[in-house]
Amino acid sequence: MKTLDTFSSLDGWPSAAAAFAGDFRTGDRIQTAPWGGYAILGHAELLSLSRNPAADGMAADTNAMSATPVLGRILDRALFTQSGPVHRLERGAMIAAFASLPLQALTDEAVRGVVQAAPERADLRADLVERIVRASWAALLGLSPEDAQRCEAAVKKMAYLLSPNPRSDKADLAEVGGIDLNELCKIALRGPSPFVASLQSSLGADRTVELLAGIAFDGIETIAVGIDAAMRVAFANSKAVRPTSRCADECLRLASPTPLTMRYTTDVIEVCDIVIEPGTPLAMVWAAGNHDPDAFPDPEQFNSERSSRPLTFGMGNHACLGHALSRSLLVRLLMEIERLQPEKAPLPERWRPLAGDWLFPLRVAVI
Ligand code: HEM
Fold it and tell me: Which of 55, 131, 152, 365 is the most exposed place for a label (fewest CB within 10 A)?
């Protein structure tokens, strides 16, 4: 069986489709992962495994993070690292909390306010996407704009360690970020957010703070990268793009900003004649599934009429809980696309989603 080597190419790939084209040509849809366990690439294989309850959350390695215990605990208590009945209960509470949000009004206000106040020559990430994300995070947690900005600063510090290329020389700073974030999540308990109130009423104050801290990276960093990358695809295909969920999904599929996440097996699973033992890590390579030609013919082409479901937000019992918020913000931003004109070709020449500088700064004229 082939060992996954896609992400060892430091120079990246011309596109996400190009990164996995060879694997699909040779039929290497499941591979061994260089760090142990399996890497799952095929769309059908990802669908089947992600929906199997025995492909559950992977616990955080707190020993590896003993030098940064606060960060270690945030990961250890985050929803995505939970499994079994505890995960099901807490996921249910978080789904109910998200359902308590006035999503349409929240995203509409976040995007309209930011685009109206944007400078004539805006930086896509700093002046548009990050401000929109900050406004939506403030609304989600019921925080003041200042506290939402402090959350963003805390997450940026944490990112020194919680990134594919961790900076051990910045471990102390990353730990301070974790401490600040916990304090800010405690402030949210006293705020007006229906999301926080819903979580607190079902899981109690302490667990709510932990779960909020556990989604901060996704709610601030992952979503900013995702919307930034998806907007570049939208700019590059502006003639075909409409402000619809299907177009947003197609932009996100082509961008595939979260290339892989981990699951862990809690029981024997059989897939494609392979018997996977309990206790096996599974690297779910969503970016590969999103470019599997069996599910997405001509995977590099923008086509919002596709019949297969993209896997940008994962699938099944651990699927992303921020998908509706992320999609809704992107659709709302797509409504403004005619007012936003990039000053140069928007797409990076190489697809390198694990590199911090993958998305170069992009100036956008705001009309
Ligand atoms: C474009 C933005 C985003 C992308 C691409 C993304 C992607 C993902 C992916 C691939 C997973 C793993 C799914 C699986 O294993 O099946 C995930 C899980 C998760 N995401 Fe997101 N995410 C985004 C934004 C967000 C936001 C904004 C939030 C919250 C505010 C969020 C909260 C979560 C949570 C809580 C989980 C874990 C769910 C569980 O384990 O039960 N995500 N996300």
Answer: 365
